[in-house]
TrEMBL record:
EC number(s) recorded for this UniProt protein: 4.2.1.17
Species annotation: Stutzerimonas stutzeri (Pseudomonas stutzeri)
Keyword Lyase listed: yes
Pfam families given in the database record: ECH_1 (PF00378)
Top-tier EC class: lyase
Entries under PANTHER family matching the protein: ENOYL-COA HYDRATASE, MITOCHONDRIAL, ENOYL-COA HYDRATASE-RELATED
Coiled-coil segments: none
The protein, known as: Enoyl-CoA hydratase
Presence of keyword Lyase: yes
Amino acid sequence: MTDVSQGQVDCRIDQGVAWVGFNRPESRNAMTWSMYDALERLCRELEADPQVVAVVFHGCGGKAFVAGTDIKQFADFEGGEAGVNYERRIDSVIAGLENLRKPTIAMLEGFCVGGGAAIALACDFRYCTPTLKFGVPIAETLGNCLSVTNLSRLMDLLGVARTKQVLMAAELIDAPQALVAGLVGGVFEADAIRQEVERKAQAFAGRAPLTVQATKDVINRVLAHRRTPADGSDDWIRTCYGSRDFKAAVDKFVSKTPFEWTGE
């Protein structure tokens, strides 16, 4: 097994707002399996807490929201089925966040890529600092592919053309582009974003909870109806995760060995 510092997902509740922090700043808050488990568990707990009116997700350290899933963990993958199992696991965690019956806000500072982008896309609202770098640059890093559900979230918010830019061209979206695209609802300086997000989150205490819940739930029903079944990309997930390219890309990251894409 590859040795990976596990990190943690913190939670603090202040005046009805739950602040959920991805706390692994030495690795730009890259997610470990245990952090995904903690996120899933926290979503269930916050769902059941009547004192919580809104949930804010943020990265610790100020340099990143979440810089994807820690690549070192993929070193133990054997074949394409491991990729399918991984994508299913992530789908389950992200679905729990997306379906949380509280308003959710992603406070984005710095890098928000890969798994971090999936988490942010599942939130109801996103606000960022000018340092935002948003994307899923797997065409340059690992050579894997997204589940059809996570790809659908990208398309829902960015449209087809920008989704191709993000995934096929591996382009990162900066703060001005994110604002124009409607990906974020506002851009705030680093010394002001927490106060601004706190104000927006606490405002939900004065809004009709049934209206907020109903709106979110019905929107999610519409989105679920539009989306392809979860196994709609399994053939490509098996192909990409089971490829020599994927294994070589992971080896390059872990052991710093050179390689060239082969398409096999």
